[in-house]
Design brief:
The complex is a heterodimer.
Chain A (H helix, E strand, L loop, with lengths): L1 H6 L1 H8 L8 H41 L2 H4 L13 H32 L4 H14 L3 H15 L6 H26 L2 H9 L4 H29 L3 H6 L18 H10 L6 H31 L3
Helix pairs in contact in A: 3-13, 5-8, 5-10, 5-12, 6-8, 7-8, 8-10, 9-10, 10-13, 12-13
Chain B lengths: L3 H4 L17 H4 L6 H37 L11 E2 L6 E2 L2 H32 L2 H16 L2 H10 L5 H14 L18 H25 L3 H9 L4 H30 L2 H6 L5 H6 L12 H12 L3 H34 L1
Antiparallel strand pairs in B: 1-2
Helix pairs in contact in B: 3-14, 4-5, 4-8, 4-10, 5-8, 6-8, 8-10, 9-10, 10-14, 13-14
The chains are: A mainly alpha, B mainly alpha.
Chain lengths: 305, 345
């Protein structure tokens, strides 16, 4: 760079008054522009979150503050008395069913990949498959379960089927985070356990898993938060229900996201009930995220980071 | 299934834990009972293999459900814009869906990538540690907002935000000669347009790209940064000469992941986009982003309740879902390949 500046006469003139203790004007200006852009980008990224939260709170808080929101379903003739109890219970119920199926699958696969198949060819094949599953759009997972359960097996739409579609979405996220956590467990712990003559499976169950348990729980909670907000499988595999039901085998089953999508198909989206459902869903999902953050912070501190 | 060397594999020589594993004394020692191990290994390997098989099963079931509709299709599946599955020779094609899906995702990417790089640079290079943590957490929280909430907010709140209409007018006035930015009659504001959907998609994929970029930027070799600083480089010059070259593959693979997410995003797009009538689709192809339309995902979500009891219509929707699956597969595979090449380097 210096060679070009000495050959051109214009640059020579500049070099006379060059103050080497600080960057030249154009460099400072460019640095300032870049810094300003970074700050601007960050502010711009934070605005949507604040704005979405503000919209949901200002339009939905009214519904949440009335007692009927938490105690009744949408079965009353008077819209002002509508509640979301059926949908809250439905969302949590589907979340629980999904977790109960997903967690063992994700944990076993992660254990297999890290503890048994590390570095082997089969691990790369499975890892590739998990990557593909991570990228499967939720609506495609829903169509697959519909083709499997309804078209092929002759079943019907139900909360069970919706949960199965959500399992396809939850397993890869939980699996990936569990895998990372298991890799963090130092080999010396495993070796110490082997040296005591403890079988490998017992080492995994009583040494490896307890060491990484809070990291694993963080991953599970984040995966759960993700599937609780998923709507596409619920549209494909459930029909909306205004009444209270806890039976996961019926085709009509209410959840918080489908309150919103159902209101949309009926053309009345900007109502207190819809925004109330949105706010309740945000509280549920963000609450799970903050819990996950708290767990992982405690975990990191214990690991000495 | 359980070979003897499986059991003691992670046991390496305690004196040199990082040395390549060779059969040590511990590796030849047999644990007291093998039954538990065999059960555990058998169980976990079966589940893992089933996971891998699931990908194939998904593909096969989608193909199987799509074939009846595809064989009954009178029009070319890839070049037809219209979608009519009511009467027996079906006439449907994915041309319009492909365009809307691609253009909305690409515009979202064009908006999100520069911003995400800016945010990631702010977090890793500029902000003091006390500020960087909370900012990263807030951006991560953005990823936690369910997509249907973004759809609701985008169509009701952001769609009536005057500033965006101003941006639309400026784009039409300056770039209106490009077909993509052409003004379309009867779409007088941003409500229901691909443009609005792209902005919301950009917000939704921003956290993914930021998180991936942040991870690679944090791993910029310390000595390169310090060497540039020692030569008198400004912060921007450090970023341009040390941080960005190092993290390029990470940023690209993060962007591809974001693209994959934007292509498959369902509810946000369904709630925001307004449909274009079949008549208009038939008459001429309108590439403008200041008009409505349907992506693969929104088409499926919108039409599914009606197609529920008609195997042919359902098959047509499954065929479009299959196309989406194949497209996202290749986008994600590209992201993975780029990321792996970056790691190797």
């Amino acid at each position: 760079m210096t060679s070009t500046s000495t050959t051109s006469p214009a640059a020579d003139a500049v070099e006379h008054e060059l103050d080497l203790t600080r960057p030249s004007g154009s460099r400072t200006a460019r640095n300032g522009c870049a810094s300003a852009f970074m700050v601007f980008a960050t502010l711009l990224a934070v605005i949507p979150l604040v704005w979405v939260l503000w919209s949901a709170i200002s339009k939905g808080i009214g519904s949440l503050l009335s007692a009927s929101w938490w105690t009744s379903a949408m079965d009353s003739a008077d819209q002002a008395k509508w509640g979301a109890l059926h949908a809250i219970v439905g969302t949590i119920e589907i979340g629980v069913i999904t977790s109960v199926i997903s967690i063992p699958i994700a944990l076993l696969t992660a254990i297999y990949l890290v503890e048994y198949a590390r570095g082997k060819k089969i691990a790369r094949v499975i890892s590739f498959a998990v990557d593909v599953l991570t990228g499967v759009p939720s609506i495609v997972a829903a169509l697959f379960i519909f083709a499997l359960v309804v078209t092929t097996l002759g079943g019907h739409q139900s909360a069970w089927a919706a949960s199965l579609a959500l399992v396809i979405l939850m397993v890869p996220t939980v699996l990936r985070s569990t895998e990372e956590m298991l890799k963090l467990v130092p080999d010396s712990l495993r070796e110490a356990s082997f040296a005591l003559g403890i079988p490998k499976w017992k080492t995994i169950v009583s040494v490896v898993l307890p060491t990484s348990i809070s990291g694993i729980i963080t991953g599970i909670v984040l995966g759960l938060a993700r599937v609780m907000g998923e709507t596409a499988p619920l549209i494909v595999l459930l029909q909306f229900n205004q009444y209270f039901t806890v039976n996961p085998n019926t085709p009509t089953f209410a959840t918080l996201p489908t309150i919103i999508s159902n209101a949309y198909t009926q053309g009345s989206a900007d109502t207190p009930t819809v925004w109330g459902a949105a706010l309740t869903l945000i509280i549920l999902v963000m609450g799970l995220n903050i819990i996950a953050k708290a767990i992982s912070r405690r975990y990191l501190r214990r690991m000495g980071k | 299934m359980a070979e003897p060397n499986h059991v003691a594999e992670p046991v390496s020589d305690p004196a040199t834990p990082d040395a390549p594993r060779r059969p040590s004394a511990a590796a030849q020692m047999k644990p007291p009972s093998r039954t538990g191990d065999r059960v555990f290994l058998g169980f976990s390997s079966t589940v893992s293999v089933l996971m891998a098989v699931l990908v194939l099963v998904i593909f096969v079931f989608l193909v199987k459900a799509a074939i009846p509709a595809l064989t009954d299709n009178d029009s070319n599946f890839f070049t037809t814009r219209t979608w009519s599955t009511d009467s027996s020779p079906l006439n449907f094609g994915i041309a319009a869906l492909v365009w809307t899906t691609a253009i909305s995702a690409i515009i979202a990417l064009l908006i999100a990538v520069p911003l995400a790089i800016g945010v990631a640079l702010f977090i890793t290079q500029m902000a003091p540690k006390r500020l960087a943590g909370p900012v990263a957490f807030v951006v991560d929280l953005l990823a936690a907002v369910p997509s249907i909430i973004f759809g609701l907010w985008g169509s009701i709140v952001l769609g009536h935000f005057g500033f965006l209409n101003g941006v639309r007018s400026v784009l039409i006035a300056v770039l209106g000669w490009i077909p993509i930015f052409k003004e379309t009659p009867s779409w007088s504001d941003v409500g229901g347009t691909i443009f609005l959907a792209s902005i919301v998609l950009a917000i939704m994929i921003l956290p993914i790209i930021t998180a991936t970029s942040r991870d690679v930027m944090e791993q910029t070799p310390r000595d390169q940064v310090e060497a540039s600083l020692a030569l008198g480089a400004t912060r921007w010059e450090v970023i341009r000469m040390a941080v960005l070259p190092h993290s390029r593959s990470g940023i690209i693979s993060g962007s591809m992941l974001g693209l994959g997410r934007a292509l498959g995003e369902t509810l946000a797009v369904t709630l925001i986009l307004q449909q274009v009538s079949q008549m208009q689709l038939k008459r001429l192809f309108n590439p403008s982003i200041f008009t409505g339309g349907d992506t693969f995902a929104s088409k499926i979500a919108r039409d599914f309740p009606e197609a529920l009891n008609d195997p042919k219509s359902l098959g047509a929707l499954v065929a479009s879902g299959l196309s989406l699956f194949v497209i996202t597969f290749f986008v994600n595979a590209a992201a993975r390949t780029i990321a792996e090449r970056g790691v190797k380097r």
